Amino acid sequence: MPSTFHSIETAKRSLFTQTAALNTTGHNIANANTEGYTRQTVKMRASIPMEAYGINRSNVPGQLGTGVEFDAIERIREKFLDSQYRGENTELGSWTIRSNTLDKLQQIMNEPSDTGIRKVLDNFYKSWSDLSKDPESVTARTIVKENALALTDAMNHMSKQLSNLSADLTSNVEAKSSELQSYVNSIADLNQSITKIEGLGDNANDLRDQRDLIVDKISKIVNVTVTDTDQGYNVNMGGQALVTGFAPTTGINGAFLQAAFASNDLQGGEAHGMIISRDQFVADYTAQMDNLANTLANGDISVTLPKGSVLPEGTVLNGVTYTGTNRTLQSDLTVTVKGLNGLHQLGYTQEDKDANGNMVAGKPFFVASNNGGTITAGNITLNTVIADNPNAIAASLRVIGTAPTEELVKGNNTLASLMANLKLNSFTSVSTGNTATIDSFFSSMVGQLGIEAQEATRQTQNSTALVSQVETMRQSVSGVSLDEEMSNMIKFQHAYSAAARFMTTFDQLLDKLINSTGVVGR
Asked: What is the pLDDT of residue 62?
């Protein structure tokens, strides 16, 4: 049997519940543009009706309802979409970094252009061709020297840019590791706060939103998997734990991420892209440029020395030592020499004779700036003897007479012509053993870079589309729709007004019952 004031209680429950629904709607509207916010809803249910089953149950027909109540305010979120989003976001992070790095490498290579290595190489070979037309010209020799310096400067500069890019990537890995450590600490703190709040029976919706947003940000840096436990999120990077309940992993730095990459725990994200960019892309093109410089200077090349050429005293070619009268070739001789340096040392300069009265042979044209080390793109430089005196450039293969009266055949351009033709000669790579022209080595490098950059761009675009697609699906579930919230607000407002009207109506009934009943005849 319901009490006299039963309907007042029913109206009160309705007012409280509709008020909670209106407040939650207002909270949703206020956070419509908040990053990571998940829309919330009040879980309403009919309160326990009268009367409950029992021996003392009244005979009044029907179960009389007692109104409405809410037992929770919940987030509308789908874990599957979260997991899918984070996986795609990880791929996007890695490919974005790789694409950006390859774009920078293309800018460093600067090909095709009128200012790149290829143009400098062409100018260098052309200067030898010009020298062959007037081998005694100091101006032509100076131009050869200056073009050689331009070539070495271009290689040095490119090597420095590659080195700086590698250093920048290393610095960025350290920065990302610090960012990751901060996020990991925040998740551990949020785990603790959420556990405390939800231990009291409430849903920590806004704190959960913050935690999920941080996990989303982590997924851009490294690959993550998330397990929801009684102590909050356990976050792992492959087999490496980042957060376990209330305990964050400490000591996350560049070495930590490098070790994770080596153990295959780090498989995606920006940190993964940075390490791949540095250790594969930049390192590979640095090695190729070093090989190009060393091959130009010292790579095996096959040249044909024309009949009548006179080799410097003591020259060893094809296992034969040329000395005395056999220095003069009686027929064309095809030999293998060690790059441009080896060929240059077969010719004669316009300097004075040596101590034995022989004409001075050419010196190694290119050397390493670190005093005799292996030539690389970073240290290749023009021999200081040549840089200080263009007459030290060898252009001739002909002398007359014998020591000490040996004289240079003036106007002979044999060596200068052979140098000019090196543009078309095949060099054997010092590091790989492959054979091609220097231009072909450089062209293959530029072509490889173009293909890798194109693939990275394609993968980035695909990943961007996938992330956008999943995020759209996630927002369709979890995002705030202002139209829907306005509709709900009107619905809850009318429900509140109706409940208030019901309470007023029943108040009038009670007033009539209490103040007017039993007063007839007074």
From this structure: 64
CA distance 255 to 245: 24
Using alpha carbons only, what angle is made at residue 175 by residues 170 and 180, rounded to the nearest 5 degrees? 125
Largest CA distance in the chain: 160
Rounded Cα gap, residues 41 and 43, in angstroms: 6
DSSP β-ladder status, 315-317 and 320-322: antiparallel
Matching residue, tokens 């998330």: 226
pLDDT at 394 over 70: yes
Q: Any long-range contacts for 498-506 (C-beta under 8 Å, 24+ apart)? A: 499/11, 499/14, 499/15, 499/18, 500/11, 500/15, 502/7, 502/10, 502/11, 502/14, 503/7, 503/8, 503/11, 503/12, 503/15, 506/7, 506/8, 506/11
CA torsion 285-291-293-299 (nearest 10°) is -160
Q: For position 102, what pLDDT does the model report?
A: 97
β-pair type (300-305, 247-248): unpaired
DSSP 398-423: -EES-TTS-EE-TT--HHHHHHHGGG
